[in-house]
Amino acid sequence: MIALIAAHFVVAALLLSPLRRRPVIGAVLGIAVTLSTAVVALVRGRDGVVSERVEWISALGLGIDVSLDGFGVLMTVIVAVLGAGVLTYSITYFDHDGTYARFVGLFVAFAGAMTGLVVAGDLFTMFVFWELTSVCSFLLIGLNDGSPSARTSAVRALLTTGLGGLCLLAGVVVLQLEFGTTRFADLAGVAQAGGAVNAAVILVLLGAFTKSAQMPFSFWLPGAMAAPTPVSAYLHSATMVKAGIVLVARLAPVLADVFVWRWWVVIAGSLTMLVGGINAMRQTDAKLLLAHSTVSQLGFLTLLVGIGTSTATYAGVAHLLAHAVFKAALFLGVGVIDHETGTRDISVMRGVARRLPVTAVAMVLAAASMAGVMPLLGFVTKEKALVALLKDIGAPGTVALVGVVVGSVLSVAYSVRLLRGVLAPDRGDAHSHESGDDAHHHVHGSPAAQWALQGPVVVLAAASLVGGFFAGRVGEWVGAASRSLDDKASYELVLWPGVNTAFLISVAVVIVGAIVGMRVPLRKFESRGVGERAFDATYDGAIAASKRLTAVTQSGSLPAYVAAVVAVVGAAVVTALVQGASISNVVLVADDPLRIVIVALTVVMAIGVLVVPYRFAAALLLGGVGFGVAMLFVGYGAPDLALTQLLVETLTIIVFLLALRSMPRRFAASSRWAPASVRLAISAIVGVAVPLFATAVIAARRAPSVAGDYLALSEPQAGGRNVVNVILVDFRGFDTLGEITVLAMAALGVANLVRMALRRRDTSVVEERS
Amino acid sequence: MTFRRSAILEELVERWLVKVAVLVSVYVTFRGHNAPGGGFAGGLIVGAAFVLRHLTGAPLRVRGRVIEHPARLLGAGLLLAVATAAAPVLIGESTLESHIWKLDVPLIGEVKLVSSTFFDLGVYFVVIGVILMILLSLGDDGARVMADDGRSGS
Predict the structure, then answer these.
(1) pLDDT tens-place string over residues B37-65
(2) Closest CA to A485 of A314, A324, A243
(3) Considering only residues 690 to 729 of chain A, which have any Cβ-Cβ distance to chain B shorter than 8 Å?
(4) A216: cis peptide before it, omega within 30°?
(5) Which of A123, A318, A528, A547 has a 20 to 30 A CA-CA distance from A185?
(6) What is the pTM of this model?
(7) Total domains present in chain A
(8) Cβ distance B70 to B134 under 8 Å?
(9) Is the ipTM of this complex over 0.90?
């Protein structure tokens, strides 16, 4: 299983370079990989739970932990089969250019990540794949990277799901600390309520709700429709947005009774169902209508799998399957209509049924399944949900039932609204006829291409129908899946339940919904949701605040920067000294004549730096101070230090001189960033405190020195007699690594600053000329 | 301010000083494990040689080819250091673990090679790269840019 997941990423990597010009081959490879994943999952899943583990960070006990249980098999098959279908569809949908190669690569990578997510055996593994799907989704929403709205939507989706991902990680860490395990199988036995667990519940649900677009985080999903239709069909209706549902489903049996879980799930789910449904009724763009309907359906699913009773779990898993099938069909169907007639606006669609009869029939079936009309799969699963919620499960159950009934009315209404566009007849007048012919001309491509485009729609729609008739078989399969979540969840699906309460509710829902759907006019009702506005306000606010902060801290005055750094160091040092660091009596006295001369010269040059009016002279004197110190190092038996110091000083002087060539020769008489008294005070305090601190540091040693160990271990362990060098490249090699990285960054920074100045000069020259 | 090119000086630096400096730097780098020296000092010596050559006014060349992308040297050095640090992980040890190979080379006798030498070579290349980048940016071309910039601003 892990190998197959890895295979997805290999195919994705192939599309980045070797297959960039042959995206269709990549798509075929992708179809092969996804289909074989489905087959392997089905075959291996028959012999009970299959577990695999690849060690990752063994010191932390982290590994890629895969456990293929019944639910995993069901989800894997949904992910893989829909993936293969959408890839087939995409071959005709896209032009075969570089963008398509990128699409296929990201798409296959996403399918791999999603497969990993649904079969993950512990929360950390799930989190890793969770984040991978977020990143793939970001890149796929922004596939058309020339469009500003696509980029904005991609960023919105990434920030929202990314924030949720961080919450999830925090929640997972809390669970690990509390229970010592994050394996789903082990959690069931040990989990219990407690203060920290309550926090974990909140965090985990935040993660799930951002991912699955629950209120108030649902705003990013309609925006994600900026992605091409195959992406929307797959990621943003059938698979990725189900990740939160999967998480809730896996944890509900464990955590449903803890703290706010049940109430929150019920309220968020009901609210999402209603708001999504109402928003769907405001749209005329078929794709946006479907997006809002997806939000609504996700609310329904969250509520079912999260409420924590075995019947509801069973119904939730069943409806998860039904929704994936009908929603993918609808999205792809809208894509076909858009591709062939050039519009997806239901208020202007005309004669779709005549031009694309097969697609139209398929969409009617899929929409009927979404509305919950007999005899389709959506009807069977929604019946089951109503039955589950009619059972006496207390106040949350009642609230959920009301939410689901009203939400279902809206489901029927938006299904009808969609079909009003799809089934709108040709208008009889000449103008329309002309445009009809024109549009007819658009139906293009070879029969094979048409088959690839419409085939998946037909297959998925047919699955909704066949699934309804073979409800018993589907029910067995769903039972196997839901039993792995909750071992009591063993029920069956039936097409004809008999006239009972749930059935009567269903009939009433369909009638009321159909009336609402026919009555609401087919025009767009503009709206921008609260969530979206809150997000934009936060986002814009953060950007504005950081701009203001930058303006304050980055004044552009080099002396001010240096003063800030030095003042902070000085403050730290003074604090340490005030708090009673003992100043040592270890004072090195220059005892022989040569050293006295060196020290005297160095001091004179240091004073010279302060008094000379020329920058060049000051730089030279500063170098001289450095040389003096290097000489002292030689005298005290530190040849390595002295050698490096000498070389560094030499080069520093030259760099100084190179830079100073383009600056005024004399120091500026006054500095604007602070009055002279402040500058003088900072200098004086730091100048006095640092040497004092240096002596205090010498006196502050408590632990024994490591010098002896280093000297003893240098030759036998690191094979070097020069202990200074051995410290640099071996004992403290990480420090060196950090230092050379900083050095490299600094050099790149210098080079880029100069290049920017160069570019600015070039543009200003051009401006002068023009 | 530009440097006036002097043929004699250029010849002297080009033909002798730079070559000697590079030799010395390699010596200093490799002896570093047992005696004062090492990659940092060695890199600085090569850097100083390049600075000298720059001061003669000649373009910075290596074997006749003008240096254009010192950042590549920088990256290569960093990569070498990181690779040396990370290599022991591949055989299941902790990072930066040193390995000592003793080779019997005919005529020379036993030669001891320590894996951290490669780390030091990485440092060596990074230092050279840094100096070259600074020279190319702040040196003649860069300085002219900045001087012009200042003039147009005033």
Answers:
(1) 888 889 999 988 888 888 777 777 666 67
(2) A314
(3) 717-722, 724-726, 728-729
(4) yes
(5) A318
(6) 0.70
(7) 3
(8) no
(9) no
